[in-house]
Amino acid sequence: MSNGQSERREMTGAEMVVQALKDNGVKHVFGYPGGAVLPIYDEIFQQDEVEHILVRHEQGAGHAAEGYARSTGKAGVMLVTSGPGATNAVTPLQDALMDSIPLVCLTGQVPTSLIGSDAFQECDTVGITRPCTKHNWLVKDVNELAATIHEAFHVATTGRPGPVVVDIPKDVQFARGFYVSPQIAPRTSYQPKLQGDLEKIKAAVELMAGAKKPIIYSGGGVINSGPEASHLLRELVDLTGFPITSTLMGLGAYPASGKNWMGMLGMHGTYEANMAMHDCDVMICIGARFDDRITGRLTAFSPNSKKIHIDIDPSSINKNVHTEVPIIGDVGRVLEDMVRLWRATAKADKKALYPWWEQIAKWRARDSLAYKMNNDVIMPQYAIQRLYELTKGMDTYITTEVGQHQMWAAQHYHFEKPNRWMTSGGLGTMGYGLPAALGVQIAHPDALVIDIAGDASVQMTMQEMSAAVQHDAPIKIFILNNQYMGMVRQWQQLLHGNRLSHSYTEAMPDFVKLAEAYGGHGIRCEKPDELDDAIKEMIAVKKPVLFDCRVATLANCFPMIPSGKAHNEMLLPDEATDEAVANAIDAKGRELV
Amino acid sequence: MNAQHLQPTGSAYFIAKETERPENHTLSVLVDNEPGVLARVIGLFSGRGYNIESLTVSETEHEKHLSRITIVTRGTPHVLEQIKHQLERIVPVHRVVDLTVRSHEFGQERPLERELALVKVAGTGEARVEALRLADAFRASVIDANTEHFIFEITGKGSKLDQFIAIMKPLGLVEICRTGVAAMNRGPQGM
After folding, report:
1. Which residues of B touch A148 (CB under 8 A)?
2. Is B14 in contact with A292 (Cβ distance < 8 A)?
3. What's the complex ipTM?
4. Tell me: the pLDDT tens digits for A438-480?
5. What residue ranges do the domains of chain B occupy?
6. Is-contact A164 A156, C-beta < 8 A?
7. Which of B16, B32, B78 sits opposite A189 (nearest CB)?
8. Most buried one in A65, A177, A309, A431, CB count within 10 A?
9. pTM for this structure?
């Protein structure tokens, strides 16, 4: 696995951990101490190169590291103790697995002699985290520790990125052994394929050149591939003149101000994006995975198109949707070849696309993101729009929780660059956004970091306000407070006869007082005409802010593809009467989610 | 009712109509022999709702720390392709070969598959004699015996073992232990 002969220095396991972090370029670690990691914490105490960010709950450490990773393109690192420390890390690990985020989680473990004895704070960490990591290790020999941590970074950050766990028993942290530097001879069984098959790329370019109704559908893979991939994506769109839509995870890879931008697709995507997906003749899927929130009813998904699918993970190909031209490789490398081949061989016949763009313009004219403005009550969409208008010129990063506010943010906040949008897409983790914002702010101390939150989600990880105050991270928590678990309520209206079982939050805390209790700043806003000033105040305050934005309580998130329906069966806002909502999903759709 | 065929397949989220028929395939998986590798493979099958009909594992190349896992699984061609790709994602997995697909490519119906069973039969008198006679016919060998029992060792295709065991049932069958399927493709090429 490793070389060993380069630089062999004797040190303790705990020293090795810190040295390995330094050697892998780690500047920040998010964590929480405990009995089984004390030797490592002792080493952290005695140096300055790696800064430790103390959270209030291990889940917060994980999401903070995810936000850090997503906004920098580097691995996020978390450090937790054995037992409950490790089990609390499970949610962010699975979150990172589903959204392909490079996350390195170091866990303490009881001494090797006690493993299996039900010792205090013991759990089978590698067993519990096996299905929610890309790979994990239990290190029983101090001489394997350094090489294992290096390999962990390598696995987390290469190929399709993902979370890894290195479980380190306490006696291994105390033991002395030899440290090796991170020039890994990669293990022969792990060799992600980066370069796409040129013949397949040629076939794709040929198919694209003949398309009359093409669409590019891009995803988080473009962002994971690095900034160059986003550049190439923009170049490809310019060259071809094709319309482009993106998944939730891919927002920002192509700028929302770009003239070929159609908005997000999927369950709460725009009418034009979904209709174009349904009617297209050639679909170019770039770093996305045909998730069920994207496809709607699979049997009716884009029935007349030939599909090109670029993905680094062979298991994503043909998983949900059959693809005519699969290209396995890193998005950036494949796009490089594709752009080159297009320039060399294909001539963009942009005239041939006129009828398609005319059709798109008709769909666009349906204005599917429209909502009824109200002068007395803040509409949630309006709140996002004003937030966007007042922050768009700044160095802004947006995180979200999960629910209606997340979809409104995706619809109404417009992203120009990659790595600016941090959200829990695959797992849908309520409570992701606040700690993620902390992580982003640590990575970008001078940037404006805003968590667009819901009143229910934000209470799941509210304790990290304390961490934000401690570490001078002036994150802005912009809560769209409608007093409901809005998306749960929306589904109860759609599926369960408007019986709102436990989706109303009684005994809501006073968020302004709560902010002050944490040592932050609280703002409440209830009127549309006071909103701009309140947002400006939020931006100006140089400490963590809880912004209690009281919005219309019963607004719902449209447009929407109800479950079991196809892309061309969207429920549009102006058609979403109470009756239409109640009947939108039939008995079969009710079994789905 | 126009309930169509909207049966969820494995997960309530997907409602693809299953038009393909499930088939039995034999997979060979070459893995690093390290702690937990078998759990990773088995966990993948249980976690993603795949079937395991038979599983055999043992170290095959000691110096390289390589083990070979042979899995007989059942699924539609689409699911079988997914299983292969999902197995390949596991970091210590070197290679996955669908031996059944490979044998079709060679124009053969199926790969070579063999299984070993130990079969304990107890009895006296005519049943005992009959058991021994049948064992001989099946080319099972006696590896342990006293005046009241035999333990037979039998090797062959699964169907042969099934048949032998069924025949032994009325003759005093006590217990059975089977290894699961070991398999490889015919011809000079390796996996």
Report:
1. none
2. yes
3. 0.90
4. 999 999 999 999 999 999 999 999 999 999 999 999 999 999 9
5. 23-105, 112-184
6. yes
7. B32
8. A65
9. 0.94
